[in-house]
Amino acid sequence: MSIHENPSHLVPDLRSCAKGRISLVGAGPGAVDLMTLRAIRCLGVADVVFYDRLVDPEALTFVRPGVRKVFVGKEVGDHSWPQHRINAAIVAAALQGQHVVRLKSGDPSIFGRASEEIAAARAQGIKIDIIPGVTAASAAAASLCQPLTERGVTDRVVLATATCRPGDLPSDLNDMARPGTTLVFYMAMQQLAGLTEQLLTAGVDPDQPVTIAANVARTEGRVLHTRLVAMARDCAQAAMTNPAVILLHLAKTTGMGRLPAPPVAGATPETGHPVSAF
């Protein structure tokens, strides 16, 4: 029976909640109304919730009164809650017979370090599942009304991070930056100069249009349209910071594809496009 035929299916059934398990739940990019029904139901049966810094506080209103909520947020480069500590905490709670919800911004499977939490749970024989969420790339494309793919122009999407583990080699952008690709970079705002250099080395046109979308699906959301060669400078001048994604549509043929919104009166190619709200 569908939820449309029986709306009571939206109300969590506490009797059916299996104890001693972990659910990795995607809260989406910001706006709480982008959360899935399954995510909301899972929050309603949780015994304890460990949540990230970017999770909308309103999402926690779906948690039952009296349930413990633990903030385990991290800034890029700031690890007061290192991953091994989070792993230990959620596993310990599950071993006590609790239904643990690990609430993550975006989608847990995309740069959410889900694999490490899955491994920690399975090492202790704990059941674990993933409830997907809307990732920032999809939310940014929707906010901009700019699809990630376009028939005949871009036929693949690459989601990449510009922030790797210390000592890791950077991703090979020569393979990623092929014509016909939409590139979306996460966690790149502190790596803009290096990312620009790598993309130029990979053969991307210096005048390639670039869109930076910050605080996607939030009231404070901002967007900057610029060119690759000016990306680092324009972001600094506009004070664009994390959380943000960087989008490049590398068309199959030069001149094809949708360009960013036209510059506002007074803007020049030298200064880039002004920042605007979504």
Topology:
Layout: E1 21-26, H1 37-44, E2 48-51, E3 68-71, H2 83-95, E4 99-104, H3 114-123, E5 127-131, H4 136-144, E6 156-161, H5 173-176, E7 181-186, H6 192-201, E8 209-214, E9 222-227, H7 231-238, E10 244-250, E11 275-277
Parallel strand pairs: 1-4, 1-5, 2-3, 2-4, 6-7
Antiparallel strand pairs: 7-10, 8-9, 8-10, 9-11
Helix pairs in contact: 2-3
Word description of this protein:
- Helix content is 22%, strand content 21%.
- It has 278 residues and is an alpha/beta fold.
- It has 2 domains: 125 residues, Cobalt-precorrin-4 Transmethylase, domain 1 (3-Layer(aba) Sandwich), CATH 3.40.1010; 142 residues, Tetrapyrrole methylase, C-terminal domain (Methyltransferase, Cobalt-precorrin-4 Transmethylase, Domain 2), CATH 3.30.950.
- The strands form 2 sheets. The protein has a 6-stranded mixed β-sheet, sandwiched between helices. A 5-stranded parallel β-sheet has the order 3-2-4-1-5, with helices on both faces.
- Strand 8 and strand 9 form a beta hairpin.
- It is elongated and about 55 Å long.
- About 10% of the residues have low confidence.
**Which superfamily, in CATH terms, is the homologous superfamily of the largest domain?**
Tetrapyrrole methylase, C-terminal domain
Q: Say how many strands there are.
A: 11
Shape: elongated
CATH domain class name of the largest domain: Alpha Beta
> What Rg is obtained from the alpha carbons, in whole angstroms?
21 Å
Query: CATH topology of the largest domain, what is it called?
Result: Methyltransferase, Cobalt-precorrin-4 Transmethylase, Domain 2
